[in-house]
Design brief:
The protein is of the alpha+beta class and 303 residues long. It has 3 domains: 2-63, Roll (Structural Genomics Hypothetical 15.5 Kd Protein In mrcA-pckA Intergenic Region, Chain A); 69-163, Pseudouridine synthase, CATH 3.30.2350.10; 164-303, Pseudouridine synthase, CATH 3.30.2350.10. Helices cover 18% and strands 27% of the residues. The protein has 6 helices and 15 strands. The strands form 3 sheets. Strands 5, 6, 7, 8, 9, 12, 13, 14 and 15 form a 9-stranded mixed sheet that branches. Strands 1-4-2-3 form a 4-stranded antiparallel sheet, with no helix packed on it. The chain is globular and about 70 Å long. The chain starts with a strand and ends with a helix.
Length: 303
């Protein structure tokens, strides 16, 4: 894809690489340097170095290669299937499994296993990297996940997610002892203003996010809670519970960097219940996944 930029007075005397960084959205400085090194950038029709100084009126032409989507291979794996029919499949996702392929994770994901199990029977709305995936849960979160086998089912479930009609109950262990038996956190969530890998309630353009929580059991230093989502933002429960000073046990991103249980892999969060209107029958169905062994062992230790 060819892009052409014309240097204005504002860009006068700036370096070519700096000019490109400010003029090309979505491309990192390192990627721009790679384009320059590979001769993909010309100034007035001639190859130019990154240190080239810009003159008003210069025509900068950038040849940005079309992104290549990697081929995702089907991988037979032992999936914990809670329910399956011609439209949907419900999986109990284990800890440490990534839901769909992305940079650094092109194998071993749930999608790789689903492709082997379902063959071509997965909705195509979200493209080749996320066939069938209508929502996701974090790598270290366990529990119920619904996958759609066709586009009609996908559209139905996506609409239910949009209007917040799906029942989603999660179970978590949080730091500290929560005094109230129940409560609600209503705080918009968006990308963290300084750390782009995190989400935050301090974001300028945060989206509405509501989490209802209920205390199930109190321990000396921790609380076992049920969280019901009214919305479904990225890291919602993790961010919301941290915002009221009760971060999830094991969450080194939003909680203490040092975990009191060193063998714990990531946050103690389990998607226990998922309730939907079936896309074909129109009947309400509810699915549940038992707490994973590591979680029950932790509860026993805390007692």
């Amino acid at each position: 894809m060819i892009q052409i930029l014309t240097v204005t007075e504002e860009g006068k005397d700036s370096r070519l690489d700096a000019f490109l960084s400010s003029g090309l959205e979505g491309l990192s400085r390192s990627y721009i340097q790679k384009l320059l090194k590979n001769g993909k950038v010309t100034v007035n029709g001639k190859p130019a170095k990154s240190s080239c100084r810009m003159i008003p009126g210069d025509q900068v032409e950038i040849d940005v290669p079309e992104p290549e989507e990697p081929e995702i291979a089907a991988e037979p794996m032992d999936l914990d299937i809670l329910y399956e029919d011609e439209d949907i499949i419900l999986i109990n996702k284990p800890k440490g499994m990534v839901v769909h392929p992305a940079a650094g994770h092109y194998t071993g994901t749930l999608v790789n296993g689903l492709m082997a199990h379902c063959k071509n029977d997965l909705s195509g709305i979200n493209g080749v990297l996320r066939p069938g995936i209508v929502h996701r849960i974090d790598m270290d979160t366990t529990g119920v996940l619904i996958v759609c086998k066709n586009d009609a089912a996908h559209q139905s479930i996506a609409q239910q997610l949009k209007v917040h009609s799906i029942t989603r109950k999660y179970y978590a262990i949080v730091h500290g002892v929560i005094r109230d038996d129940s409560g609600t956190v209503n705080a918009p969530i968006g990308r963290h203003p300084t750390d782009r890998k995190k989400m935050s309630i301090q974001a300028r353009n945060g989206k509405d996010a509501i989490t209802h929580y209920r205390v199930l059991k109190r321990f000396e230093k921790y609380t076992y809670v049920e969280c019901q989502l009214e919305t479904g933002r990225t890291h919602q429960i993790r961010v919301h519970m941290a915002s009221i000073h009760h971060p999830l046990l094991g969450d080194r991103v939003y909680g203490p960097a040092k975990c009191p249980f060193p063998d714990l892999q990531g946050q103690t969060l389990h998607a226990g219940v998922l309730g939907i209107i079936h896309p074909r029958t129109g009947k309400y169905m509810e699915f549940s996944a038992p707490l994973p062994e590591y979680f029950t062992e932790l509860l026993t230790k805390l007692k």
